[in-house]
Automatic annotation (TrEMBL):
Protein name: 2-oxoacid:acceptor oxidoreductase family protein
Organism: Desulfomonile tiedjei
Secreted as UniProt keyword: no
Transmembrane helix recorded as keyword: yes
One Pfam family it belongs to: POR
NCBIfam families: PorC_KorC
Domain Pyruvate/ketoisovalerate oxidoreductase catalytic: 11-173
């Protein structure tokens, strides 16, 4: 298995955390992992993205030139990465901010109303973990247990009060996909 994923959205949507949690979950399952965040002028409201590669074997490059999956949390991200997704790949869209489907016939599109689902939970900032739960439910990259443990690892210390909410958000995203609503 070798899977390349790009997460992209506005700064403040938790895009880098999505990628980091997935990378930590992969390590918890003894997979080879790379995590390549985009640092620069990203601030709340700007753009942010990261690339995660998860593999059973050593990874030659952390660059995902033609990823199997792209997670677009906003419309500019969908446009930016649309032509990068591998033919037959999947694009996950935050349907609360992206109303149109990509213009490529060779892609699977999965729509997740991440903002609305987070609002239902009473925590608008949980949209990133909802989306990650949905992505993992479809792609089966790591176990749900590994994701939950990764959230704990990433948030231990000063942010440990956020662990339960983020784990619940992962489950909410996964359940949304498993209910057949996301296509």
């Amino acid at each position: 298995m070798l899977l390349k994923i790009i997460f992209s959205g506005f700064g403040g949507q938790g895009v880098l955390m999505m990628g980091y949690v997935l990378a930590v979950a992969g390590m918890k399952e003894d997979k080879h992992v790379t995590f390549l965040p985009a640092y620069g002028a990203e601030v709340r409201g700007g753009t942010a993205n990261c690339t995660v590669v998860v593999s059973d074997n050593e990874i030659a490059s952390p660059i995902a030139s033609s990823p199997e999956y792209v997670v677009a949390m906003n419309y500019p991200s969908m446009i930016k990465y649309l032509n990068m997704v591998k033919s037959g790949g999947t694009m996950f869209l935050n349907s609360d901010l992206i109303s149109e489907k990509p213009a490529r016939e060779d892609l699977k599109t999965v729509s997740v109303p991440a903002n609305s689902l987070a609002h239902e939970m009473g925590n608008d900032r949980a949209l990133n973990m909802i989306m990650l739960g949905a992505v993992n439910a479809v792609a089966g990259i790591v176990s749900e247990k590994a994701l939950a443990e990764a959230v704990e690892t990433v948030l231990e210390g000063k942010k440990k009060t956020l662990i339960d909410t983020n784990q619940q958000a992962l489950v909410k995203g996964s359940k949304y996909m498993c209910s057949g609503c996301g296509s």
